[in-house]
């Protein structure tokens, strides 16, 4: 089977500090050869750069996550531009909008989000998007800025919203939530969506699969996501592995 690509894994998170080498070893043993490691704030960029430089198969993305507004400063956007110019990462992100959080401060979220989209367009980089209770506005902003490509990770929107994103050239990141039987709408989308728009992810250490609920997630668990996606689509797991890895390589390089 083709090596798997975990298109969204926060391997730099403190939850992995005690056993990160073992986590990486388990991932490789499970066939997860590549991982995209997105940042959430300015403080994480240096650690992600060092981690990805030290470990083969890891690619960095730099951005400012909407859930951590209290950690962001306007000057970080200027720093981000410098990092994109000199580091040439795989993507910009994780960025987006989140109107589920307490006191979401939507105007500040919109400022950081739009500027990061503009930087992605300027440097011709894909974007890794977070969209929670904000999918319609995210789609509208993508249209306004234009000239973008990327992935909406941890997809939870409607089938119609998914179609709009496909038309814009975006992929959907599918992870642990699809393994839960109650996720009927998500499962319908995954069963019928274009294969060339599908990416697999873990979002580790968060969003474990149904067999791993309540535990720390890790990239080796991507195999469980793969199996469920293959079952939902009525295709061989090897075919899904080959296609989704090719999609990630095409998007992230």
Automatic annotation (TrEMBL):
InterPro entries reported in the protein's UniProt record: DNase_TatD-rel_CS (IPR018228), Metal_Hydrolase (IPR032466), TatD-like (IPR001130)
UniProt xrefs under CDD domains: TatD_DNAse
Record keywords: Hydrolase
Gene3D superfamilies attached to this UniProt entry: Metal-dependent hydrolases
Superkingdom, taxonomy of origin: Bacteria
Keyword Hydrolase: yes
PANTHER family in the record: D-AMINOACYL-TRNA DEACYLASE, HYDROLASE
Record-stated family: Belongs to the metallo-dependent hydrolases superfamily. TatD-type hydrolase family.
Protein name: DNAase
């Amino acid at each position: 089977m083709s090596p798997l690509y975990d298109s969204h894994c926060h391997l730099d998170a403190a939850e992995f500090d005690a056993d990160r080498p073992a986590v990486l070893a388990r991932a490789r043993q499970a066939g997860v050869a590549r991982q995209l490691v997105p940042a959430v704030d300015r403080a994480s960029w240096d650690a992600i750069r060092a981690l990805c430089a030290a470990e083969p198969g890891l690619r960095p993305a730099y951005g400012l996550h909407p859930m951590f507004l209290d950690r962001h400063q306007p000057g970080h956007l200027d720093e981000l531009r410098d990092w994109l110019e000199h580091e040439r990462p795989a993507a910009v992100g994780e960025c987006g909008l989140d109107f589920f959080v307490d006191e979401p401060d939507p105007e500040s979220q919109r400022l950081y989000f739009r500027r990061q989209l503009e930087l992605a367009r300027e440097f011709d980089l894909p974007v890794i998007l977070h969209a929670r209770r904000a999918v319609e506005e995210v789609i509208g902003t993508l249209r306004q800025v234009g000239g973008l490509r990327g992935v909406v990770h941890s997809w939870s929107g409607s089938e119609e919203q998914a179609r709009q994103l496909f038309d814009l050239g975006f992929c959907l990141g599918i992870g642990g939530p699809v393994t839960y039987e109650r996720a009927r709408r998500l499962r319908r989308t995954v069963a019928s969506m274009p294969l060339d728009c599908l990416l697999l992810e873990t979002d580790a250490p968060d969003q474990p699969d149904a067999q791993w609920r309540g535990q720390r997630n890790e990239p080796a668990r991507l195999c469980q996501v793969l199996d469920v996606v293959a079952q939902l689509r009525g295709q061989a797991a090897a075919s899904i592995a080959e296609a989704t890895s090719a999609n990630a390589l095409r998007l992230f390089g």
